Each structure stands twice: as structure tokens, then as C-alpha cells.
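[recover] target loaded
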């Protein structure tokens, strides 16, 4: 038995509603079950209950055992003084408020339909489960319910991504340009070099970067130099030597501190994702758009965003992936797939936060953009498809990732619209 099932039973009134009595034999009439509270304090606020002919208004607290009241120190907490009913699975001790008045207790196990318990047991039966608890029943869930739930889950995931933006804002005293710069750096670094590029964003003030912004060679020297990619004395490549000289000049001029910047890795990366290529592309992105932040936050369509990120690495990288080593010639453009990654992980969270900062609602615009981006292809999305829940676009694939990470793997089935629908 889990406490979240008791919450579900109470919230959706899945218990016998007649002939209820407290553990002391008092007659109970449940007039209003109250509002579910997901924050600190009693579990349900503003309930209304008739106990032996006396109507009480107040809160309801739910536990597996009555003794959990004392295990959680509720008897010492003023927030629980207005609890009018203690709902438990097992009554093992009498419970009192802080003023020593007894709290009426309802022992739920006497009033639960056997069918509900069987459905609950089936949902959490791990036998033969290879992916998620409800994998065998996913196809039974109404499509309309799933669609609405996935939209809500997408915004939950967007809120999670927005937390990173808010943390950066706090660290930079609301410097939105710096936040965009750092967010883009982290995303350009991908999984392997995200931490390295993030440390670069923390060490390099955007105000310094912006002074060189229109000169891509100078911004490249800053990015390569700060990330320790210009420290190999054996490289005799002329472009490399000039970048190194430029960085040494800028380091002295701006008193740059690169000691805390992590050196990026090349190992296990496909050449197009080498840090040299990604940093050059970022330098050219800013070289092409002096007012990049304003363009990013005002973009209202996917086409506008694709146009913003239509950039390539510098000409030197047309036949290089690393300094001093020539390769087959190819223009190192940002691919649509990579641009999608930037939009999903950096741009839309920034737009979302900036709109809130300005008191605007851009949710509809965000949905318009994300729903036109192709879905991600990964193991989680693929497994959901195998079990009958397919993603049609990036909004839905992002929602499925949120569903899997925040609900399925946490066994929060009774907080999930799919799980509660299967139980109901």
C-alpha cells in the first residue's frame, strides 16, 4: 500500500460513501472532500464533514498509519491545528492536535472496493514489465486525454529547462544577453562538452565578447583561447599562430581569467561536433547578428528561427576539423537537426522566461513553433511508440521524455493522467 493511492481514493471519492464511521464509532458524512494540496501542510484544504450531526470545516490529513502523525511531528506544527479528520489505511494509535484535542480518524481499508485494489495491484505489478508500469494498457487510454496530458507535460518540461535560465539570470544580475550567450554555449557543447562550454560562459563576460563581435577572427580567438585550444606549441599552422597571438593580446587587454574554464574533449565525438567547429559556428552566429538577443526573443515562427541560425564555421574549417590537419573539403553549416536542438533546449526556454519577465503569455506561440519541429529519435520515444503511444512532433517527444523521467521511473502513476485514467 502506498500513500499516493490513499490520496487518489480520497480525491476521486473511490471509497464507500455511506455508513461511514470513525474509529470511535462516530457517524461520518463527507460533504466536501476539499482541495488537494501539493505543497507543505495538510493534504486536503477546506473540507466539510458532518461528524455525529456536527458540521466541521477544515483540513484533512492522510497517512498510511495513524502513528505517521507523530513520525512527521505534526503535533508540533501549527499548520495542522485545523485538521478535522485523519484518514489512514491502518489506525494504530490515537492522534491529538497540538492543544491535546483528539482528531477523528477514518480507517480507509474497511471502505475500499476490492476491484480498485486489484486494478492498483495490476498497475504496479512488475512481472513481465520491461519499460513502464502501464505498458500493456497504454493502447486503451483515450486519445483526447493523452493529447491534453502531453501538452501539459511539455510545459512541465519547459519549466524545468526554464530553471536553468532563471539560475543564470540570478548569477548575472538579470543580464539577458549574457544568459543567451551562456545558454547557447552550453547547448553548442552538447552532452560531452556542455560543462566545458558552460564554464566558458561563466568566465567570459559578454560585454567583452561583444566588443569583438563583428570581427569573427577576434571572437574565435577569444573562444578558442579561453577553452585552452591554443596551447599546443607544436602546431605550426599559420591560422592557429595568428589566433594565438590575438588571444594573448586580448587576454592582457581585458585581463581575462581562463584558469577555471574546462578544456573541451574530442574523444567519442563525430567530427562535425568537434569543439573547434561548434565554437567557430557560434562566433559566426554572433558575427552575423549583432542584436541576436532581440531577434531571438521576438521570433514568432520556426522559419524565422531557421533563418537566424543559417550560419557556417569560418572558411578555415572548410577543410579542417582540428588545427593543422587538413580534411576533405566541406562547408560546416549548422544542420536543421542541430538548429532544432538549439531551439528546443536554449531558445524556447529563454523566450518563455523573457515573456514571463515582461508579463506576457507566449505559450501559444511556443506551441506553434515546437509542434512544427520534428520529433526526437531516442530509446524512450521509441519504446513508447512500441507500446502504442507515438510522438508526432518535438512537443510530444519532449512531453514523453518528461512523462518517463518524472512519472514512470518514479512510479508516480497516480499523479499521471494515464495512470489515474486506467484506475478510474
Amino acid at each position: 500500500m502506498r500513500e499516493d493511492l490513499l490520496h487518489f481514493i480520497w480525491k476521486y471519492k473511490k471509497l464507500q460513501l455511506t455508513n461511514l464511521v470513525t474509529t470511535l464509532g462516530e457517524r461520518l458524512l463527507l460533504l466536501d472532500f476539499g482541495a488537494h494540496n501539493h505543497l507543505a501542510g495538510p493534504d486536503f484544504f477546506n473540507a466539510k464533514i458532518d461528524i455525529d450531526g456536527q458540521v466541521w470545516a477544515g483540513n484533512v490529513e492522510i497517512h498510511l498509519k495513524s502513528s505517521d502523525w507523530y513520525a512527521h511531528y505534526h503535533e508540533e506544527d501549527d499548520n495542522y491545528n485545523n485538521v478535522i479528520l485523519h484518514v489512514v489505511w491502518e489506525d494504530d494509535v490515537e492522534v491529538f492536535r497540538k492543544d491535546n484535542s483528539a482528531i477523528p480518524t477514518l480507517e480507509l481499508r474497511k471502505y475500499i472496493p476490492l476491484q480498485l485494489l486489484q486494478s492498483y495491484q495490476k498497475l504496479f505489478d512488475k512481472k513481465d514489465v520491461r519499460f513502464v508500469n502501464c505498458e500493456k494498457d497504454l493502447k486503451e487510454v483515450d486519445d483526447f486525454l493523452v493529447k491534453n496530458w502531453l501538452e501539459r507535460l511539455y510545459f512541465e518540461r519547459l519549466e524545468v529547462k526554464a530553471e536553468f535560465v532563471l539560475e543564470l539570470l540570478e548569477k548575472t544580475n538579470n543580464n539577458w544577453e549574457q544568459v543567451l550567450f551562456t545558454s547557447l554555449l552550453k547547448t553548442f557543447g552538447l552532452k560531452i562538452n556542455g560543462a566545458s562550454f558552460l564554464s566558458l560562459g561563466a568566465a567570459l563576460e559578454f560585454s567583452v565578447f561583444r566588443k569583438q563581435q563583428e570581427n569573427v577572427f577576434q571572437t574565435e580567438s577569444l573562444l578558442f583561447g579561453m577553452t585552452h585550444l591554443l596551447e599546443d606549441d607544436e602546431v605550426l599552422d599559420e591560422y592557429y599562430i595568428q589566433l594565438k597571438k590575438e588571444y594573448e593580446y586580448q587576454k592582457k587587454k581585458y585581463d581575462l581569467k581562463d584558469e577555471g574554464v574546462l578544456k573541451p574533449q574530442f574523444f567519442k565525438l563525430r567530427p562535425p561536433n568537434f569543439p573547434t567547429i561548434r565554437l567557430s559556428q557560434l562566433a559566426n552566429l554572433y558575427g552575423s547578428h549583432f542584436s541576436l538577443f532581440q531577434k531571438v526573443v521576438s521570433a514568432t515562427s520556426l522559419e524565422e528561427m531557421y533563418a537566424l541560425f543559417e550560419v557556417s564555421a569560418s572558411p578555415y574549417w572548410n577543410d579542417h576539423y582540428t588545427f593543422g590537419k587538413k580534411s576533405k573539403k566541406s562547408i560546416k553549416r549548422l544542420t536543421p537537426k542541430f538548429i532544432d536542438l538549439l531551439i528546443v533546449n536554449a531558445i524556447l526556454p529563454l523566450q518563455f522566461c523573457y515573456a514571463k519577465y515582461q508579463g506576457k503569455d507566449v505559450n501559444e506561440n511556443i506551441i506553434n513553433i515546437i509542434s512544427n519541429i520534428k520529433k526526437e529519435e531516442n530509446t524512450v520515444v521509441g519504446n513508447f511508440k512500441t507500446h502504442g503511444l507515438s510522438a508526432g512532433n518535438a512537443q510530444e517527444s519532449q512531453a514523453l521524455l518528461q512523462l518517463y523521467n518524472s512519472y514512470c521511473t518514479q512510479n508516480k502513476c497516480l499523479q499521471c493522467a494515464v495512470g489515474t485514467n486506467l484506475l478510474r
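[recover] notes: The chain is about 45% helix and 10% strand.
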